[in-house]
Amino acid sequence: MYGVVLWSDKLDRKAVIWCEDHGDLALCRQDDTQLGVSLDAGDWIEFDLETARHQRVACNPRLVAEGVYTTLPETLSSAANAPRQPSRRARNSVLSFPARESLSRDERTGISEEPAPV
Predict the structure, then answer these.
(1) What's the rounded Cα separation, in Å, for the pair 23 and 84?
(2) Phi and psi at residue 107, in whole multiples of 5°?
(3) Is 15 within 8 Å of 55 (Cβ atoms)?
(4) Is the pLDDT of residue 96 over 80?
(5) What are phi and psi for residue 38, nearest 5 degrees?
(6) Mean predicted confidence (pLDDT) in 10-19
(7) CA torsion angle for 73, 78, 80, 83 (degrees, to 10)?
(8) What global pTM score does this model have?
(9) For burial by CB atoms within 10 Å, which of 42, 51, 58, 75 has the most?
(10) In a 3-state reduction of DSSP, which class is residue 55?
C-alpha cells in the first residue's frame, strides 16, 4: 500500500500514515532492523499493511519520494476545522408541492362503498 507520513517522531521511530485507501490511519513503529528508512512528515512511502488488535500497522516502509506532501498535515487540519456547507443534495431535500383540491378517500382511490352489482 502507498501512503503519506502525517507525523513522525525520529527519537521513538514512530510515524502516523494516511493510507491511499482513505481508511483508518496506520501506525508505523520501526525497530532496529529498519534503521535504513527515516520517515518525515510529507514523505510518500510504500509499505505492507497488517492489522493488530484492531489497529492498522505499516510494516516494512520503503521511501518512494521524500518530502513530496509536506503541507498535507496542515491542509487536512485546516479542512477539518473549516465550516461545512450543506451539500447540494441536502439543501434541496425539501420539495414544495402545488395545492390540490381536497378529495375524499373514495375519490382518491376509486373505491366505492356501494356493493357491486351481482
Answers:
(1) 21
(2) -70, -35
(3) no
(4) no
(5) -110, 120
(6) 93
(7) -170
(8) 0.65
(9) 58
(10) strand
Query: Where does residue 103 rank: exposed (0-12), middle (13-18), buried (19+ CB within 10 A)?
Result: exposed
Biggest distance spanned by C-alpha atoms of the chain:
94
CA dihedral 61, 67, 69, 74 (to 10 degrees): 110
**Looking at this protein, which amino acid is placed at residue 107?**
E
**What type of residue sits at position 44?**
W
Tell me which residue of 52, 53, 68 sits closest to 18, measured CA to CA: 68
The DSSP letter of residue 85 is P
CA distances from 72 to 18, 48, 99, 100 (A): 10, 22, 52, 55
Helix (H, G, I), strand (E, B) or coil at 43: coil
Contact 85, 76 (CB under 8 A): no
Unique residue bearing C-alpha cell 513530496: 68
pLDDT, tens digit, for every residue of 15-62? Answer: 999 999 999 999 999 877 666 688 999 999 999 999 999 999 999 999
Burial class (CB in 10 A: 0-12, 13-18, 19+), 27: middle
